[in-house]
Amino acid sequence: MGGKKYNGEAGGSRSPRSPDREAEDENRLMPEEVIRERRDRIEQIGSIRHFIVKLTIVLAALYLVFHFVYGLQRVIGNDMYPRILDGDLLLYYRLPDKIEIGDIVVFHKDGICRNGRVVAQGGDVVDIGDDGTLLINGNIQEEEIFYPTKARETGITYPYEVPLHSVFVLCDYRTEATDSRTFGAVPDSELDGKLISIFRRRGM
Questions:
Q1: Distance between the two ends of the chain, CA-based, in angstroms?
Q2: CB–CB of 140/96 below 8 Å?
Q3: CB-CB contact of 151 with 142 (8 Å)
Q4: Per-residue pLDDT for 183 more than 60?
Q5: What is the rounded distance in angstroms from the CA atom of residue 158 to the CA atom of residue 125?
């Protein structure tokens, strides 16, 4: 009979298109400059994310290195004058295999971060002569220090035997500095590390 034929679309509605097909149609309708701008924007966002990830990795690595391997200390005062000056920045190594006589170390004492030169180790006997000479185990020490080594009136008594697992630390500015003559030997547990380099900050 002459009835109407239906094409399978209820009410004449079209079947829904896939998102990919709609995107293709939209791109077909958009000007080429708009498409290019969108692509550039996507690339920029990807580059920014990549930079942030790399920056995060670098910062995390620096934190680990300077928290567990190396350290920085800003010097306050002139206890190590003239070798180290007020305001200098010290780079030190936290994991030295061995601390030796003459090494400059960074340590904490009475809640203060200090630095000084190791002159004796555990088991050594330290004495100071009336003429300002330093004696270790009875031997006069020849040091490249410009100031005499004098005992402190309120410091330790001599001869002084350095306890095991400790070091005896003197500063280069012997007439004014506070060091082991005042507070005694420094235990290994209070040593932060051994000096590697000095960065002058005066005038910066």
A1: 101
A2: no
A3: no
A4: yes
A5: 9
Tokens representing 148 are: 């005499």
pTM here is 0.71
Helix (H, G, I), strand (E, B), or coil: what is residue 54?
helix
pLDDT tens digit string along 49-87? 888 888 888 888 777 777 789 999 999 999 999 999 999
Cβ–Cβ < 8 Å for 162, 122: yes
DSSP E strand stretches across the chain:
70-74, 89-93, 104-109, 112-121, 125-128, 134-136, 139-140, 160-161, 166-170, 186-187, 191-199
User: In angstroms, how far is CA 116 from the centroid of its own chain?
Assistant: 19
Instruction: Provide the token pair at 192.
Output: 């932060």
Show me where the domains of the chain are located: 19-67, 72-199
Identity of the residue numbered 56: T
Q: Does domain 72-199 have CATH number 2.10.109.10?
A: yes
For residue 201, what are its two tokens?
Answer: 């900050």
Measured distance CA(136)–CA(48) in Å, rounded: 61
Q: Which of 124, 105, 111, 125 is nearest to 170 (CA)?
A: 105
